[in-house]
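Dear U.,

For the methods section draft, I wanted the exact inputs and outputs in one place so we can describe them consistently. I've listed the two proteins in the order they'll appear in the manuscript figures. Please don't edit the token lines directly; just add comments below if something needs changing.

First protein:
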Amino acid sequence: MSLSGATILQVIPHLAAGGAERTTIEVTEALTAAGAKSLVASAGGRLEAELSRAGGELIRIANLPTKNPIAIRANAGLLARVAKERNVTLIHARSRAPAWSALWAARRTKLPFVTTYHGVYNAKGSLKRLYNSVMARGDKVIANSDFTAAHILREHPWAQGRIITIHRGVDPARFAPGAVGNDRKAALAAGWALPASNVSASNDVTILLPARLTGWKGHREAIAAASLLRQDHPEGWRMVFVGDHQGRESYLQELHQLISANDLGNRIHIVGHCADMPAAFALAGIVIAPSNEPEAFGRVAAEAGAMGLPAIGSSIGAQGEIIVDGQTGYITPPSDPPSLAAAMARLLAMGPEGRKTMGESARNRVLERFTTSALQKATLSVYEGLTGRS
């Protein structure tokens, strides 16, 4: 048998831009192609239209993201009713608070329950560890990297035997050198107030930091590194921060102040959310992801590699599973602007051909290990195994 005719319910707080949300869409695409029905319980968000195009159906539960225990219990009842009315085959949760609702709904309806550990959660105290533990209570627990799998085993050793690593994936057709036309690049560059020509043909190399604006993604460190980089490389580069501030107005203001204080207003540009990330990478020559907390996977590094770009990532977390230091990019210590500046300087000194050679190695690695199709195939295999449809 196959998953044809099955109904899978994925549970996620929001459908905003993010790795967990993107993976939800990717799994929906695979389910649709397999003849299954994909339901997504969520409060909704920016990716609703993409979910619909992928063949999925949104089950809107406005307070699904809440951590209120009473509401979590009530949401469990809502999910159980959806499971019964829609003949759901399996429930898959992707975040902690709604995962408790999903767990209780699965137990109530006697359905297989899958969780995906998308992040490495802090556990300060026994109560927080109990709250986090729901993500290790699935009949199968998917870790999005080997780093995450090791973390789960340390925090929840009783989950051993149920953990499976399925790396997040990148669509190598969507993220590919040459896949983005000049019209898309020109439109995006115009929106960013950058030169409309392809950056690789202009005098300035764009150093791209694509991440939501939050302190642990390393924007402060990038600004400090840019100030150091300017000392030895006063010309020939610019830095662009791409990402939504998601309501963090004070952090956005802090970044603007740091840029101004370092006299980098003509060097660093904050451009907000970008709906066309392949075009953003196509405008770049170097990608940086200087996170100062561990990345559970590191989608930025994988997408950059797929686009044939060298990336610089932090030595903590899973970025080292994607970036091979010195071959496909560079790994630097976290919260270390001098090391970040030195890595950027090495890539600038390579010139276009050197960066292209390193980028080709990065793309080959992504094609071998980190594709969307591999993620989809492995995830559907988990579903098949738990539902007896393999």
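Second protein (the one for the lower panel):
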Amino acid sequence: MSEELGLKPLRCGHCGSELPVMGQLVTFQCPACFRYWVLGADALEPVTVYRATASGETRSPRDEIVWLPFWIADVDGAALRRRIEEAVAALRDASTAILEAHAAAERGAGRSGVSGLDPLAIPDPASDAGLARSRLAAEAANAKRPPAQNEIRHITARLEDLGTLRIFIPAFKSLNTYAYLKVGRLLTRAQPPFSIERSDGAGEPVLCALRVEEAAALMDFIFFATLGESLQSNGDFLERIHLEPARPPRLVEFPFHQRGTSLVSVIGGFWISERLVERTGEHRFSARSPRVPGS
């Protein structure tokens, strides 16, 4: 029995109204009941959208604000600290084992009077064989090098102070994929204080182009981008670190002021180029006045 193929309209799971489609956005707002929906693996799923406000922030109804969406994942700082300490210990053990194995091989070669190193493996035949063997062993141990203790102490102390580490994953559409790392790194490194309230956003659909599963896949990379260069270049350390959200990520819109070709974050104290954010579908990327309750 053949099945008839065709396009079916997206409908609100609450009131049944047809949902407007806006380009590559994965979130939809019902035009009738204003509930939000996000595209899941097999169907539309309800999603709560929040808006962030800075502590003590006052805003005039005439203020022009650009709202950009982020998925925020809360990571247990204590669990991440343990994972980092375990990774460092494993690398330290591996490096020590390599050096000890080399020393044992050298002692065995000395007792037997036979060199354990193939002369063909020595780049310079005139060089001292013992020195060449030590150099090769040191390079092997360095491949499993643990990070510097002062860097690890800085990270673990910060995690202890924070308790919960928030990972900010940009969810707006961008032609420049580096924007996700850049903006996510700035907010994640700053860990700015803010409060959230549920968005009533009638007629202002959230411009989210990233599903929560895709956001979760970017968590590690955004965290790594906040680390120093020496840690970012230590692949053996990074491959042992994986972040797990303590609870499902939340979709939060953050306010930005538009200043010429720049977007200045109201929360976090940084600016980004307007070009990092793509205009989506027919929705013009322009400043929108926040909806004032009761207006």
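Candidate sentences for the figure legend, describing the second protein: Strands lie at 27-29, 36-39, 44-46, 49-54, 66-76, 164-170, 194-198, 250-259, 262-265, 271-273. Residues 114-122, 136-143, 281-295 have pLDDT under 50 and may be disordered.

Thanks,
Y.
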